[in-house]
Amino acid sequence: MSLFDKPFDRRTMLSGSATVLGAAAASSLPFGNAFAAGFPDGAISVTVPTRAGGGADRNLRAFTGVWKKYLDATFKPDFKPGASGRVGYEFYMGKKKRDGHNLLFGNMGPEFLNWIVKMPTFPLEDLTYFARVDTDPGAIFVRADSPFKTIDDVVAAGKKRTLNVSTSRLAHPASVGLLALGEHTGAKFNLIPLSGGKNTIAGVVTGEMDLGTLTSGSVAAKGKALRTLLVFNDENVAADRLNNAPTMNQHFGTSLPPLLSSRAFAIHTSVIKDHPDRFKILNDTLKKVFDDPEYKAAVIKAKGIWEYINYGDMNDTAKYLKGIKEVGLRFKPLLTGKPS
Which uninterrupted H or E stretch holds 163? Predict the structure, then answer.
């Protein structure tokens, strides 16, 4: 069974070949808590498959800064960038001990799209995303003084010539959104991966790129330097920070699913099966963070968009990944390095 195809009904909560019913059962036994006595007995290591200083780093630090109050543990980020996340995932799955003290904090959208293009060496069912932290929709943007004032201006120009579009990586929800726009309107785009959000934005600001596509949170963080023209979500919930840009479905009458970057905590599936007591402690304490006022303050201080913060359990992450699989397979031939 593929990780993309995990059932996500709330009664069974299957995770690949493992089930987390054991966690619930253990917690109901009179000696259930004794199983986890002393956990955690050291720092929690969090593998991050990107470089330090980016959106994942800021998001993780804001979250774990509050989580440590409830888990009574320190968190040590372990940044392993490279190969669009592959280096970090392979490191985590191959090197990290499976005892509950090691987590992965990943961006489900782009990282799983990358796996649609090329599968990893480990079985996907051996990894489980158990807690979503946010949903950050992709967007199309230009520099503030761009001649493109609306998305219709972009489409009109794209029908006359091929426009160069910067993206952080080809296999990214925002890239898929751009490709869907071209497919729907007939506009021609050349996606150029510039390795990371900072470089993607820089390519637009310097004028080297006609426009860019990226997660909208990164775009909003640049304030008036950029102008957002389109958002790939059901609703633009941060319209006041994104130039009141329309959504793809609203403006063009399409029916695309939300194309989101979605950060989430993952764990070896075997930990859920073999250490249900420890997993329950992790999961229960993690959920408390979302209602803590200190977390909201930390997100805002880090220039995050609070409206994008929302908890999702492993049922929600499985449903999300199923949608990512569908759009990824649809555009797979265009996510392998060839111009669109």
Answer: strand 163-167
Inter-residue contact 267 to 274 (CB < 8 Å): no
Half-sphere exposure of 129 (CA within 13 A, CB side): 31
CA neighbor of 139 nearest in space, from 49, 226, 253, 51: 226
CATH architecture for the domain at 3-135+262-333: 3-Layer(aba) Sandwich (3.40)
CATH 3.40.190.150 domain locations along the chain: 3-135+262-333
Q: What are phi and psi of 138, to 5 degrees?
A: -70, 160
Smallest CA-to-CA distance from 318 within 108, 43, 26 is with 108
How far is it, in rounded angstroms, from Cα 43 to Cα 68?
Answer: 10
CB 219 within 8 A of CB 139: yes
Closest by alpha carbon to 263, among 215, 332, 193, 222? 215
Query: Which candidate, 148, 331, 307, places its Cα nearest to that of 256?
Result: 331
Determine contact, residues 196/168, Cβ cutoff 8 Å.
yes
Distance CA 238, CA 243 (A): 9
Total count of residues recorded for the chain: 340
Q: What is the CA radius of gyration of the chain?
A: 20
- Burial degree of 9 (CB within 10 A; 0-12, 13-18, 19+): exposed
Residue 26 has pLDDT above 50, yes or no: no
Q: Is 184 helix (H, G, I), strand (E, B) or coil?
A: helix
Question: Reduced to 3 states, what is the DSSP secondary structure of residue 40?
Answer: coil
Measure the CA–CA gap between 236 and 249, rounded to whole angstroms.
11
Pairing assessment for the beta strands 211-215 and 163-167 based on DSSP bridges: parallel
State the CATH architecture for 137-259.
3-Layer(aba) Sandwich (3.40)
What integer pLDDT is reported at residue 84 of this predicted model? 82
**Residue range 199-249, pLDDT digits in tens:** 999 999 999 999 999 999 999 989 999 999 999 999 999 999 999 999 999
Number of H helices, E strands in the chain: 14, 14
Q: Which two tokens stand for residue 163?
A: 């426009």
